Amino acid sequence: MNKALPRAGTGDIQIRAAVSDDLAALLHIENDAFSSDRISRRSFRRFLDSPGARILVACGDAGVYGYALLLLRCGTALARLYSLALDTGHRGQGVGAALLKAAEAAAFEADRIVLRLEVRADNRAALGLYEASGYRVLGRVANYYEDGCAALRMERLLHGPDLGSGRAPYYSQTTDFTCGPACALMAIRHFDGTFPTGPLQELTLWREATTIYLAAGHGGCGPFGLANALARRGLSAEVRLSPDGPLFVSSVRDPEKRKVLILVQEGYRAEAQMLGVARSGHPLDAPALAERVSGGAMAIVLISGYRMFGEKTPHWVLVHDADDRHLILHDPWLGHERHESPADAANLPVPFAEFDRMARWGRDGVRAQILIRKEP
Ligand SMILES: CC(C)(COP(=O)(O)OP(=O)(O)OC[C@H]1O[C@@H](n2cnc3c(N)ncnc32)[C@H](O)[C@@H]1OP(=O)(O)O)[C@@H](O)C(=O)NCCC(=O)NCCS
Fold first, then answer.
1. Mean pLDDT throughout 348-353?
2. What is the CA radius of gyration of the chain?
3. Residue 362 — left, alpha, or beta (φ > 0 → left; ψ -120 to 50 → alpha)?
């Protein structure tokens, strides 16, 4: 908790973890910055002692100028910026931005990949800071504050400080049912830098691999269909699937559609055998996947979209790199309604434990992976 943090890089301001001696300064800043919804002395004391909270303070020659309060909920990949405030004399000098950066770094260090916050809809300075720092508005909560003011809920995906450009090129899916083909395109392009990528190639792969039906809309792609498409393009593909059997059947109500969905997948399995696609009933856990990926493989992995973007749809992502604590993935889905850019969805570092939680789908906890290599 009291670990020293790097200097903020704003002149002689230093950012460090708060200690109990900072309590009076924290209360002074709180009273200076807010006229309602203030954090009490007792609450500050509790936060200072709580393993699920981090308070960072920005200090200079004249003492403590501001603080950021971060809450880390156990078992989730989310961190919440509960409060950020400076005393009046130190605003507009980059200290708020530096504290925000330090809070993001502390959340990332604690294996959180999303930082969320609420801000008064009429707080121009704070909104300016969050927008300039890459936060997107998720929604509006009416009557959130004591005086009836609405809050805007915002979030940002956290990227590590030293992520490179990524081993695989990023490609964003152009329809809501082509996450699998978009991942396959990125992998093919990684192994063959001349392979063309675009909506036509994406739809061609989809036509080769689709389960035809899924929930209410178009079918997505299954693991054998995708592996076959990759094998046909000269790559070595291995499907790891558990439990064994056709996927997504529970998502389709109509029995006729179910029959089609099962039949198509049986066809892909038979074809996989002819194409020499390897198969295993044992999906790899995150550290084992990291080892494979570090050894030169790519992996297309089925995840539940729930932990990533709050929807329980099945979703394919590409794991293309790893470090000793994270798998690094490209999520082909850009939340266009949230104005995401590839910077939000490419090179996402996901902590091992979090990845193992998100990489299962549906009531049966299906785990599906396609490991891809290019044989010399
Ligand atoms: C909100 C607050 C933390 C911002 O900190 P700050 O140190 O003043 O902000 P910075 O100097 O780091 O500014 C960073 C960016 O924020 C934006 N910003 C800051 N003040 C702004 C203002 N008054 N109007 C519009 N945008 C503003 C700008 O984009 C700025 O970047 P720029 O200087 O390159 O233009 C600070 O003003 C504060 O403590 N306010 C009172 C408490 C509060 O409202 N907390 C937020 C609770 S959610």
1. 87
2. 24
3. left
Rounded distance, CA 203 to CA 269, Å?
21
Spatial separation of the C-alpha atoms in residues 240 and 129, rounded to whole Å? 45
CA angle 183, 264, 334 (to 5 degrees): 25
The answer to whether residue 5 is domain-embedded is no
- Give me the chain's average pLDDT, please: 89
Is 123's C-beta closer than 6 angstroms to any atom of ligand 1? yes
Angstrom distance (rounded) from CA 338 to CA 229: 32
The reported pLDDT for the residue numbered 221 is 94
Choice among 137-141, 183-187, 306-310 with the minimum mean pLDDT: 306-310
149 and 225 in a common domain = no
Q: For 207-222, what is each residue's pLDDT tens digit?
A: 999 999 887 778 889 9
Residue the block writes with tokens 């054998």:
224
Q: What is the CATH number of the domain that holds 212?
A: 3.90.70.10
Token readout for 335 is 């939340």
- Here the tokens at position 264 are 């198509």
**Ligand 1 in contact with 132 (CB < 6 A)?**
yes
Distance CA 224, CA 273 (A): 10
List the CATH number of the domain containing 49. Answer: 3.40.630.30
Going by alpha carbons, the residue nearest to atom 22 of ligand 1 is: 125
Nearest atom, ligand 1, residue 131 CA: 29
**Residue 224 and residue 314 share a domain:** yes
Cis bond leading into 243, ω under 30°? yes
Q: Say what the alpha-carbon torsion angle 91, 97, 101, 102 is, to the nearest 10 degrees.
A: -10
Does 33 sit in the ligand 1 pocket, CB within 6 Å?
A: yes
Same domain, 75 and 146: yes
Model pTM score:
0.72
Indicate the pairing of strand 298-304 with strand 278-280: unpaired
Mutating to test ligand 1, I would choose from 123, 129, 135 the residue with most ligand atoms within 8 A of its C-beta, which is 129
In terms of residue numbers, what domain contains 104?
A: 14-157
- Could you tell me which residue, 113 or 151, shows the higher pLDDT? 151
